[in-house]
Amino acid sequence: TEIYTLSLHDALPISNFTTSVFGSAAIWDDTLQSAFVFGGGIQSDNYNGIRQYIPANRTLIQHGRLATPPTISSPAAVWDDRDKNAYIFGGGTPASVADIKKYHPSTNTSNNVALFLPEAVYAASAVWDSGTRRAFIFGGDKYWGDDKLSDLITVFNPESETAEFLESRLPAPLINSCALYVDGPGPRRAYLFGGWTTGGETDAIVRVDIDELRPSTTTTTTPDPDLSSTTEEDEPGAPYKITLSKTKLPYEIKGLASA
């Protein structure tokens, strides 16, 4: 696997990972001026390594492994730019997991946060809202490989140590989408580009207005990480389900918008 830098006319290989992987998650540490890459898949297996890439000198460093479970593929990751921590959500082992991991680059330490996501997710997307210091996790596959795709939005608050569903949902179930956060000027928004939805690939661009997302009116509980105990309570019709407009692209999530 090669990393490329883009010029006006071509792409040049600049370094190689020591292990070829797919489905990793990455963050950028502006203090260390480095990218950190977490986990990934290796053919029929998974990889749980932490890799640091320093563009200034084209250096690639291997840093041990994330906290258990031992291997994860297709997690989601965000960067807390105040406390300089990365948070890594879910992934496949290959079964989908609900774990939240924290990684601190300056000390090269990783641990599991003492709570779980409300449901196990594989190949979800996530963004970090630096203003409120919360992470938003979008969609994912609830049962790895079984196409139990999710349209749920989860909010994780490390200060209050909570992770719960929002009342607002995505316009459609979505996995493997590329997420980008825009912090003004103007409204705070997340954009989700492409991915996989029910029926196959999608070319949709989903805009999520962060300030207009509605909290859940239900109480969520810490899930049992054993997927055999997972229920279907989050299927359509649950109390936090709302109707969203699908009349145009990009889809817009605006509170209680109606179709």
Per-chain topology:
Blueprint: E1 2-6, E2 11-16, E3 25-29, E4 34-42, E5 45-54, E6 59-65, E7 76-80, E8 85-89, E9 100-104, E10 109-112, E11 125-129, E12 134-138, E13 152-157, E14 162-169, E15 178-183, E16 188-193, E17 196-197, E18 200-201, E19 205-209, E20 251-253
Parallel strand pairs: 19-20
Antiparallel strand pairs: 1-2, 3-4, 4-5, 5-6, 7-8, 8-9, 9-10, 11-12, 12-13, 13-14, 15-16, 16-19, 17-18
Fold and architecture overview:
- It is a single chain.
- The chain is mainly beta and 259 residues long.
- It has strands spanning 2-6, 11-16, 25-29, 34-42, 45-54, 59-65, 76-80, 85-89, 100-104, 109-112, 125-129, 134-138, 152-157, 162-169, 178-183, 188-193, 196-197, 200-201, 205-209, 251-253.
- A hairpin with a 4-residue loop joins β11 (125-129) and β12.
- It is globular and about 40 Å long.
- Mean pLDDT is 76; it is low at 1-12 and 219-259.
Based on the model shown, name its key terms.
disordered N terminus, four-stranded antiparallel beta sheet, 42% strand, mainly beta, 20 strands, 0% helix, 259 residues
